[in-house]
Specification:
The chain has 255 residues and is α/β, with parallel strands linked by helices. The protein contains eight helices and 14 strands. The strands form two sheets. Strands 6-5-4-3-2-1-14 form a seven-stranded mixed sheet. A seven-stranded mixed sheet has the order 7-8-9-10-11-12-13. The N and C termini lie close together (8 Å). InterPro entries: Metallo-B-lactamas, RibonucZ/Hydroxyglut_hydro. Residues 36-214 form the Metallo-beta-lactamase domain.
């Protein structure tokens, strides 16, 4: 199976630079230190999928020139992962069909609350048209493409990562149970959140993420959901293990 992965956003809920922050990372001239909210685009012959549509969704779709979209998978219901759902209206118009959206029951409650007009005024012109699918911790298919959810914890909140072929994507995690780690084993490429160096209540630190990556043992690991507190891209990259890298907005991987 051929696959192209594009990192649409690799930052935290505030993005990088952070508003009003005077730190060196937020004022870096390196484009790799400019991070939109976390999202990834996956393109295969079977399907074009986005994982999470945060506040930067519109710009991310424009920047990556995504003209066809089959589905959005939601990892969880936090605003930095769901806020851009309204902008699927453009795909409704040009593709002349509703968009498939996959979310857990808990995340669906958030969508119903935050986007009431989608569900209460479905016949109103211009309202986003979606087909909402309930996602559980079991494999499913989109246009024949197999998606394996991986359940992780974001403090006490359930979050889903996903394995698609030999590619595994996990964000907003600070705990992965052994049986869920097993789902990621054998992946060629792992994407994992690494917020900063200091301990955090709901995210892996860089050191914790490195330890998890070593346990899963993919060929290559890319870290995402990166805070300005982690440091400059170039400086942190120089000290990572040989098969581990920081991701950055616009990075593309082809398998």
């Amino acid at each position: 199976m051929s696959m192209r992965v594009t990192f649409l956003g690799t930052g935290t809920s505030q993005g990088v630079p952070v508003i009003a922050c005077p730190c060196p990372v937020c004022h870096s001239a390196d484009p790799r230190d400019k991070r939109l909210r976390c999202s990834v685009l996956i393109e295969t012959p079977e399907a074009t999928i986005v994982i999470d549509s945060g506040p930067d969704f519109r710009y991310q779709m424009l920047r990556a020139d995504v003209r066809k979209l089959d589905a959005i998978l939601f990892t969880h219901g936090h605003k930095d992962h769901t806020a851009g759902l309204d902008d699927v209206r453009a795909y409704n118009y040009f593709m002349q069909q509703p968009l498939d959206v996959y979310a857990t029951e808990e995340t669906q409650e958030v969508l119903h609350r935050e986007f009431q007009y989608i569900f209460k005024n479905a016949d109103y012109p211009g309202v986003p048209q979606i087909n909402l699918h309930t996602m559980r911790n079991e494999a499913f298919e989109i246009n024949g493409l197999r998606i394996q959810p991986i359940r992780v914890l974001h403090y006490k909140m359930e979050v889903f990562g996903f394995r698609i072929g030999d590619f595994t994507y996990i964000t907003d995690a600070n705990f992965i149970a052994p049986e869920e780690m097993d789902k990621a084993r054998g992946s060629h490429t792992l994407v994992l959140n690494a917020l900063r160096h200091e301990a955090h209540i709901s995210h892996f630190t860089l050191e914790e993420a490195i330890a998890v990556a070593r346990d899963i043992a993919p060929s290559t690991t890319y870290f995402t959901h990166i805070s300005h507190q982690l440091g400059l891209h170039e400086e942190i990259s120089a000290h990572l293990p040989e098969n581990m890298r920081l991701s950055f907005d616009g990075l593309q991987l082809v398998f």
